[in-house]
Fold this protein.
Amino acid sequence: MDSMDGEWGPGPRQRAPRPGAPDAIAHGASTLGKLRPNMRRPDNPSWRWPLAHHKSAQKRIRQSERRRKRNQHIRTGMRTQVKQFRQALEAGDAGVAGERLKLAEKAIRKAATKGVIPKGRADRAVSRMAKSLNGLASA
């Protein structure tokens, strides 16, 4: 018996468990994020705008969605460049890794300029990549 359950059954804010249902769903937990993760995006044809009734709130939702897509594009490009640098580093080719470092640093600095990541994180990431490249060149 749950702590919310009374002597006569479920508490006032609980549903009675359905037969065969998992505990979280049976007790009224939200399943939106678990069972249908992409239902929250306008990319999905069955998606509807949230309950924003004011024009300013609807505009803010549109702006947030545009910014999310822009940030996602910049972040994905940055991660790709960093991954290519790491692959060149693991291959042991200092020349290619040096070229990849330049491209990765450019992508990271751009992400920091656009506000996708903090400037300090960008500095730290570039510093660590340069340090690892110098370790490869000296070894």
Notes: The CA atoms of residues 111 and 117 lie 6 Å apart. The chain has two domains: 14-47, 55-138. The chain has a mean pLDDT of 81. Residues 55-91 form the longest helix (37 residues).
